[in-house]
Write a structure and sequence with these properties.
CATH architecture of one domain: 3-Layer(aba) Sandwich
Strand order of the largest sheet: 1-2-3-4
Radius of gyration: 15 Å
Number of strands: 4
Distance between the termini: 18 Å
CATH superfamily of one domain: Gcn5-related N-acetyltransferase (GNAT)
CATH topology of one domain: Aminopeptidase
Helix content: 25-40%
Order of helices and strands: HEEEHEH
Largest sheet: 4 strands, mixed
Shape: globular
CATH class of one domain: Alpha Beta
Strand content: 25-35%
Structural class: alpha+beta
């Protein structure tokens, strides 16, 4: 099974804590986001990891990304999550300008070992 097929299967499976949200302009899909809810050892409630955020280039800078993130915030509150968090590339200055206005950058550094 491809990653895309598995993602769609998980998004459509109510037993999997992966959710998707969309943004539309008229009848045109202009943005998507995926989130994963998961337990953690630092709190008694789940975290909401904003894993994917994509806004079509033709509408960037018009509030679509902000609206999607605000929708994730609302969803996470409804799910009683203790936080929403995400990562981005250091050089993604356009997105980071938005993120700096709606969240707090932490001092954490991510390390990864792909298996």
């Amino acid at each position: 099974m491809s990653t895309t097929d598995a993602t769609w299967r998980n998004l459509l499976d109510s037993n999997v804590a992966i959710y998707g949200f969309t943004a539309w302009r008229d009848t045109r899909l202009v943005g998507i986001t995926h989130v994963v809810l998961h337990p953690n050892t630092w709190d008694t409630t789940e975290c909401c990891y904003l894993e994917d955020l994509y806004v079509n280039e033709s509408v960037r800078g018009q509030g679509v990304g902000r609206a999607l993130i605000e929708q994730v915030y609302d969803f996470a509150r409804q799910q009683n999550c203790n936080r929403v968090y995400w990562t981005t590339q250091e050089g993604n200055t356009t997105a980071r300008n938005l993120y700096d206005t709606i969240a707090t950058q932490t001092d954490m550094v991510q390390y990864r070992k792909n298996l």
